[in-house]
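sry for the spam today, last one i promise. struct tokens for design, 266 residues
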């Protein structure tokens, strides 16, 4: 979506003199506290307060010596294919033996029991091969699980943005518990969220998709964005008699930052 910019002389906006307006805020699309999905020791932080971050970038590393060892062991098991080779060799030998026993039994050179024993030996060899293949497949699944556990020790950025705050340092204990041991606070900066609190009496006048004008506070009040509302609350806040409406825009479509106040003009 493209947003037009109007260059005006002042925040008083004389061209909107008779237009209804509401106080609003320009904020990052998301502000997130980053925590570790597992309990452990913070080994390394790759960013600090003020750092610009990209989606998928590694933010922090949790100590993972045990997980690395488990992953290496699991990988080794996936490469151990001796049991499969042995079972295949047994099948080859047992197949030839069963064929000989069948011919000899037909000519009465060996007993029927000897032939049955050869058939049973072939069946056992096939069962051993199946078991060896199943064990190898299980080893592959265990390796993938070990890799997943190891990857959870690396914390990645969920979006493009900036590090707002660093709470702790390398050597600290971290964990997934809500409200405890956050590592970082990050904000998404490639999108802005603009939200206005509107009195109840305007509820039927505000519609999703409606075009409004956003006037940021000084010194950015010369740049006005024309946008469409992408959400209008359908539940009224009973205590204040208000509801909210707003939109999300790309940050590069406007010439003002997030974290500022604004006015929304209908």
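last one done:
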């Amino acid at each position: 979506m493209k947003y037009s910019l109007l260059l005006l002389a002042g925040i008083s906006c004389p061209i909107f003199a008779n237009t209804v307006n509401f106080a609003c805020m320009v904020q990052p699309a998301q502000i997130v506290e980053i925590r570790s999905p597992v309990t452990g020791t913070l080994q390394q932080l790759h960013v600090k307060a003020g750092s610009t971050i990209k989606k998928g970038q590694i933010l922090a590393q949790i100590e993972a010596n045990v997980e690395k060892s488990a992953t290496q062991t699991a990988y080794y098991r996936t490469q151990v294919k001796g049991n499969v080779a042995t079972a295949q060799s047994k099948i080859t030998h047992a197949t030839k033996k069963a064929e000989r026993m069948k011919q000899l039994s037909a000519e009465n050179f060996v007993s029927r029991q000897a032939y049955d024993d050869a058939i049973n030996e072939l069946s056992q060899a096939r069962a051993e091969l199946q078991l060896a293949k199943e064990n190898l497949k299980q080893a592959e699944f265990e390796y993938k699980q070990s890799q997943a556990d190891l990857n959870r020790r690396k914390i990645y950025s969920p979006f493009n943005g900036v590090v707002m705050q660093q709470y702790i340092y390398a050597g600290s204990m971290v964990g997934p518990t809500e409200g405890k041991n956050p590592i970082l606070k990050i904000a998404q900066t490639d999108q802005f969220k603009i939200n206005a609190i509107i009195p109840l009496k305007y509820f039927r006048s505000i519609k999703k998709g409606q075009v409004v004008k956003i006037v940021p506070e000084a010194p950015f009040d010369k740049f006005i964005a024309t946008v469409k509302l992408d959400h209008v609350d359908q539940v009224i806040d009973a205590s204040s008699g208000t509801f909210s409406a707003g939109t999300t825009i790309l940050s590069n479509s406007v010439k003002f930052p997030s974290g500022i106040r604004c006015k929304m003009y209908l």
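Residues 199 and 242 are 4 Å apart (CA to CA). ok im logging off now
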